[in-house]
Amino acid sequence: MTVTPQTNTDLGSIAEALQAHDDFIICGHVSPDGDCLGSQLGLAAALKGLGKRVTCLLAKDEPIDERLVFLPGAPELVPASSFDGRARTFVGVDVPTRERIGEAAAALRDGCELAITVDHHAVDTTMSDLVYVDPAAASTTMLVWELADLLGADRAGDVALCCYTGLVTDTGRFQYQNTDAAAMRAASEMVEAGADPASVSRAIFQNRTLPSVRLEGVAVERMAFGAGGAYAMSWLVAEDFAAVGAVKADAEPIIDALRSVAGVRVACMLREQGDVVRGSLRAKDDTDVAAIARSFGGGGHVAAAGFTLSCTMDEARRLVDETIGATFAADEGACRA
């Protein structure tokens, strides 16, 4: 456990606060991944099992990744823009700031009696009354798993499945640097409680659309390298998606192909999205890609981070190339010193 300075409570106290309330809104970040949705739906299942009333919001009114629709409760997700109730207790999971909850910020602001954050993203600000952020946790669902136990909820079935999904996705099938003994112990507990690793793997990792595979071919073909092959970068524009009939979610797995190349320490995938460029970063070693993302106004984890640039794709490629190149040059200089 390595909580941030912004953390002002513990999971036991959060469990007590949840037990004392009955109406909940649970929200994650925009463009939710497996950990975000797993945290929302896992906590919702635990609270509903205790007789609580829960609504899970989508921070932005857009379809979730089709590979995650199997999660229990996914069909009941409500776009925040369509929510007209009152958020007596607002719980933000896997999301550290008001900016990242998108259209759900109104629910957090209007009539909210208590706001709670449970997360593993380290940032310098908070948006809640009760804050628990542990960057050492491999996934936010690991914290939700512990929280459900402290609540006295039945963790078998839906809670275990949702929490395992978040853990297996945020550790990259237990391949990333955040895979530690605690993560493996939690995974074992989740499997014992009913999570089926094989079915989760089939749903998420063996269920890509044909357009996604074709889009990966485009990205791999134009992959460029820097720092003597230490980092790889590729990019996709709107025309690439249209050419193969792909949607935004189809691009999510592609960065793993860049990361898998021998000798590559850092991978960067750029994707045109409207009038901005979204960037994703992954590291295979101890390079802090979150620091790179923060230089562009983004953030994330040491080994996985993201950012958004308001510029053309050509400008984005130049900026990212210069920044990552400078990072490796500084590391080499420090080693020589």
Automatic annotation (TrEMBL):
Pfam families according to UniProt: DHH, DHHA1
Coiled coil: none
Annotated InterPro entries: DDH_dom (IPR001667), DHH_sf (IPR038763), DHHA1_dom (IPR003156), Oligoribo/pAp-PDE_c-di-AMP_PDE (IPR051319)
Protein name as annotated: Bifunctional oligoribonuclease/PAP phosphatase NrnA
Organism: Eggerthella guodeyinii
Domain of life the protein comes from: Bacteria
Domain DHHA1: 248-324
Annotated Gene3D superfamilies: 3.10.310.30, inorganic pyrophosphatase (n-terminal core)
TM region positions: none
PANTHER family: BIFUNCTIONAL OLIGORIBONUCLEASE AND PAP PHOSPHATASE NRNA
The DDH domain, residue ranges: 24-166
Entry's Gene Ontology molecular function annotations: nucleic acid binding
